[in-house]
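Table S5 (text form). Sequence records supplied for joint modeling of the two-component complex.
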Amino acid sequence: MSKRNLTLLTDLYELTMMQGYYEKGQNEKVIFDVFFRQNPCNNGYSVCAGLDQVIDYIKNLHFTYEDVDYLRGLGIFKEDFLHYLSGFHFSGDIYAIPEGTVVFPKEPLLKVIAPIMEAQLVETAILNIINHQSLIATKTSRIVFAANGDGIMEFGLRRAQGPDAGLYGARAAMIGGCVGTSNVLAGQMFDVPVMGTHAHSWIMSFPDEYTAFRTYAEMYPDNCTLLVDTYDTLKSGVPNAIRVFREFKDSGKPLNKYGIRLDSGDLAYLSKEARKMLDDAGFPEATICASNDLDEFLLHDLKMQGAAIDSWGVGTNLITSKDCPSFGGVYKLAAIQNEEGEFVPKIKISENTEKITNPGNKTIYRIYEKKSGKIKADLICFSDEVIDIEQDLLLFDPIETWKKTKLSGGTYTVREILVPVFKNGECIYKSPTLKEIASYCCSEKDTLWDETKRLFYPHRVYVDLSKKLYDVKKSLLDQMNMTD
Amino acid sequence: MSKRNLTLLTDLYELTMMQGYYEKGQNEKVIFDVFFRQNPCNNGYSVCAGLDQVIDYIKNLHFTYEDVDYLRGLGIFKEDFLHYLSGFHFSGDIYAIPEGTVVFPKEPLLKVIAPIMEAQLVETAILNIINHQSLIATKTSRIVFAANGDGIMEFGLRRAQGPDAGLYGARAAMIGGCVGTSNVLAGQMFDVPVMGTHAHSWIMSFPDEYTAFRTYAEMYPDNCTLLVDTYDTLKSGVPNAIRVFREFKDSGKPLNKYGIRLDSGDLAYLSKEARKMLDDAGFPEATICASNDLDEFLLHDLKMQGAAIDSWGVGTNLITSKDCPSFGGVYKLAAIQNEEGEFVPKIKISENTEKITNPGNKTIYRIYEKKSGKIKADLICFSDEVIDIEQDLLLFDPIETWKKTKLSGGTYTVREILVPVFKNGECIYKSPTLKEIASYCCSEKDTLWDETKRLFYPHRVYVDLSKKLYDVKKSLLDQMNMTD
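The corresponding structure-token record, covering 968 residues in total, follows.
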């Protein structure tokens, strides 16, 4: 993606609004927040991802001659504005929560502070990138959780929603905890393990299944997984695989890593039967890999039923997040700088209390219980607020304000999770490698209580507002004649 | 996409199988079919799309020095095979059903005839592209059908699964019947109308809603749609919009095209109230556009309830095909050429009759009722079969073979829908423009009976096998000791 010019990957209204601001000479600094209102798939948390691609996008923002020419042809933009666009670059600040961090509804994942014309332009692409990768990283986390330590391989490229969905979906899947992907281009671009064996067509292109297996084993003695369901799993596939494993063992050149893959039928029954056959034949170290329309629910049930499966290839349901294929990240105006240089908080009201935005220039403190290292709550504050961890900290629910928790000084720690990424248009953030992000994400999940990680009806993590932010929000609402 | 090298956008197993064939000197010509087993969203038909991107992909297939170097680094490929890859190009034939055609389960949308190493490599990317665009074109067709003549605008970029899903999703949405897209890059790349107005942030960046509306109208008097739900739709938004419309009318410079957009609340109630207010104020020609989590079901219900909405912006549910986010296209081996140059039919069996493939080198005749021009059935035949439309034609269900229909000679017409696209690696197909494809797709839907187009429990279109194909399939199954 870094070589592609995505500057026009935006909604037309961003450009018509930009021209509106341009014509009015209205280009004050503003703050926009990216946040979401609900975890996908009823999960207890989300995993944010996509920042590295946002950074590439912002760095590469520029209107080429062809872009300006195309816009001119639309007949709605004036020459002075088109001239401005031809010299456009991003000059603002961006703060973001690092990729792989566990995040919760309503907190800003990313904050843009920039002249309104610039801040408006970047809305659509930022949302597109963050929404997609955070969705897949979160869905993958659920599947990895259900696998309870077994490896999950990402096999979804053929069913992904276009090339990027396969490519950046694989990236997000690695962040969410996959051990590898079948996608070779993702392997090349992101330096992650690529995996795979053979297809039914391999078997069908040989005179018989045994010959196909034998040939494959000769080619790949170090990593030989045989697909056993082309004809009949238990009557033909597994016996032929065992015959090949035995021939290599008897020849004195045993296969190094080997096993079978099941891709149809009832995976609980077939895997248990296959396990018995492999064990009885003297191949207890042969692994059993399964694929075929898996998701976290089926995986959870198969494990409950004692399926003898060591690793899982997950495709369609992971790469599209089938039961919830969108992450509802939005981009909302939070403040406008006045002539004195102060940011005046702005609020978007709604009849639905849940949809009212949080005003002002904000940051987020993550509060951990000191003794366990687990997350107690996230506290959204104004960016100039500080927390003295030696003092008691009173948290309260921003809707049902009588629900309060007091944390005693010394029993908790805090971490500011929004970090600077761009300053005056310059990237000041060093992106970790994908492996580092994946490892960080794994440690992030250790900061969640088990109750938050379960697949069904997880315990909600509290995201509270500081007293100061709550008061400003309430007074803005009161001014609008509404109550929160 | 045409400038990107997608050669490594493939599953690792395609490459490990290729090396297997290479090492065995096994590179006979084979035939693979792309087909699907079920229409998405329980629709009565699908719309195929993506061929133009498949053509780009095939034309650009080549392993760069970096690609080969990356593969070498994986430690599983030998130098002679890597050398072969560095000179790789596609030399085969491809047949496909043109984009925008209505298609049905089990028929080949695309047929690859090529040496097995080449045919295997291209599986994943072809499926990725065809599955994605056919999905979105089909979903869009449902939404367009529910709108019953109102314009549908594609507004989904921010929720699409990555940049390509937004870009090629917009392309597919135009094929499926959208009147335009908000996606500027899609507009530029595919020469389609781009549309949009302004966001809530526009309103919020002005001291008040009236000033924001007035400013927008001054900027865009030729196409001025005002978003009326930032504060209170009926108490503030619509009255302010009317005030602006009236001021322009009174000034003697009335707005050209103008109206309002609703983006929250109950769209049936609000649109009817807004319509009354606009009419009473003397603006019956003001249009009402609606958005906010629309899909074909909500749209259908809103129209049933008399919502006074003229055009619809549809985002998330269209661009992700939310209730069914994958199109299950598969790529299956159908035949292998023997030493005499004949294609020997191959079949993939399954305990599930529905999943058994159709063997051989096939084509598809679409059979129309002569007097209505509507589709009677599709007939899958061997590619050398011809139909004499002066003769009677007996169709029978390939599963329940006692279900028969006889078409009398002279009462039907036929059209072969698979057309040649590549011949010996050369593209011999001239792609229509996107506008031409969209217009063709619209006429294609006219060949469907109303019963097939409805949203709920549509009538299934018959896809039958020729007697000759049925007999070959049955004998292959019998050889495998199974009955069809």
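Note: Chain A touches chain B through 101 residues (CB under 8 Å).
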